[in-house]
Amino acid sequence: MFEGVTLATDGPWLAGALIVGYLLGSIPFGLLLTRIAGLGDIRDIGSGSIGATNALRTGNRWVAAGTLLGDAGKGIAAVLIMREFGAHPVTMAGLAGIGAFLGHLYPVWLKFKGGKGVAVFIGILLALYWPIGLLFCATWLAVAVLGRYSSLSALVAALLTPLYLAWLDQWQLVALSVPLVVLIYWAHRENISRLLNGTEPKIGAKKKETEAGGSEAGQ
């Protein structure tokens, strides 16, 4: 991904891609939409995450859908915008995607406490190489239908993403995806613990059940 890149001439462009991506990624759609809908502060609901799965805990599916689309859109926008600048479009797009992902997980406006990155990851994949984005979504859906766990679906789909990319001979994107997958697993570390001890709520769990388990099962 960094072939032909020199810090002396390309450094400002690369830094700009990261910064623009981060700023786009840090837009807290879940927080904004729940407030606009009069549902309060999403950080006081369920697990406190600003992602789409926790937005669903509000009981408003439109807010959850808007959060999902907004978060995915951040990843798409960062990649598509920044690949139009500089002499290395693939590198610019990749760094912008990384920036958007980090901005969502660690938004400066919210004291670096954001979502879990799944929707943004989907957006990044769709913008960089849409077939892999569709494969991720198909894998997520298949696991969700079988197991009814949003977190497990995200973890399985994320784990398989580098393998799918290798199978499709997209080696530059393999290198990009691996650190993001690691961060997704880190963000889901509490979900993993609950999955192992059998306390992770399934998709569609009632709000009170979710709050009792302190759960956030997805983005």
Low-pLDDT runs:
211-218
Alpha carbon gyration radius = 17 Å
What distance separates the N and C termini?
A: 27 Å
Class per helix and strand makeup: mainly alpha
- Number of separate helices: 11
- How large a portion of the residues is in β-strands, by DSSP E? under 5%
Query: What coarse outline follows from CA principal-axis ratios?
Result: globular
User: Could you give the count of β-strands?
Assistant: 0
Order of helices and strands: HHHHHHHHHHH
User: What number of structural domains do the residues give?
Assistant: 1
> Taking all residues together, what is the mean pLDDT?
88
Multimeric status of the protein: single chain
Description:
The relative contact order is 0.15. The two termini are 27 Å apart. The radius of gyration is 17 Å and the shape is globular. The chain has helices spanning 7-25, 29-36, 52-56, 61-82, 89-105, 118-128, 130-147, 150-167, 171-187, 189-197, 207-213. α5 runs parallel beside α9 and α8 (150-167) runs antiparallel to α9 (171-187). Mean pLDDT is 88; it is low at 211-218. By secondary structure, the chain is mainly α. It has one domain.
Which terms summarize this structure?
219 residues; mainly alpha; disordered C terminus
Q: What is the topology?
A:
Elements: H1 7-25, H2 29-36, H3 52-56, H4 61-82, H5 89-105, H6 118-128, H7 130-147, H8 150-167, H9 171-187, H10 189-197, H11 207-213
Helix pairs in contact: 1-4, 1-5, 2-4, 4-5, 4-6, 5-6, 5-9, 6-7, 7-8, 8-9
Give a concise summary.
With 219 residues, the protein is mostly helical.
